[in-house]
Amino acid sequence: MLIARASRPSVVALGRDVAGQFVNRARYPQAVETPGVLVIRSAGGWFYFNADFIRRRILELTDAAPTGLKAVVLDLSIVPTIDTTAGTMLRTLARSLRSRGVSLKLAELRDDVLADLKAIGAEQDLGAIEAHCTIMTSLDRVAEGEAYAP
To answer: In the sheet where 37-43 sits, what is the strand order?
Structure first.
């Protein structure tokens, strides 16, 4: 069961509840979406054996988003590690989304995950990344029109 769960981690779309918290929209259908932005939370470590599943799930959620999508914000607050293969997948995902006119922002990165991403040159495809940037800060940056800047 543990291996099965790790190979298919939770990847869900988030919305804001009445208290302003970001919650799983499938569990809380009254949660409000942010217009033009898809907020996604992934759980668990990103590894070579689950990177493709995560990528496909993010693209499924992106494809199902309302028209006018400008950005995807990934909440990585409960992602303790991203290995090299998964980091490379993230870079490829950023390029793929950018080709659709959608920017990718990372929120709530842990310090060690940030260091791992920087070590593989992820900023070349993601633009500047930082640890502990909140979902709200990421949404504010999208609203201000901050685009990818290599």
So the answer is: 22-24, 11-16, 37-43, 71-78, 103-107
- Going by C-alpha positions, the residue among 64, 67, 130 that lies closest to residue 101 is 67
Question: Average pLDDT, stretch 61-65?
Answer: 97
Top-confidence residue, 54 or 145: 54
Q: Which tokens hold the place of 110?
A: 């842990």
Please check whether residue 18 is in contact with residue 51, taking contact to mean a CB–CB distance below 8 angstroms. no
Domain locations along the chain: 2-143
CA angle 110, 111, 114 (to 5 degrees): 85
CATH number of this structure's domain 2-143: 3.30.750.24
- Distance (Å, whole) CA 60 – CA 56: 6
Are the beta carbons of 77 and 43 closer than 8 angstroms?
Answer: no
Q: How far is CA 110 from CA 48, 56, 75, 98, 117, in A?
A: 19, 23, 11, 24, 11
* pLDDT at residue 6 tops 80: no
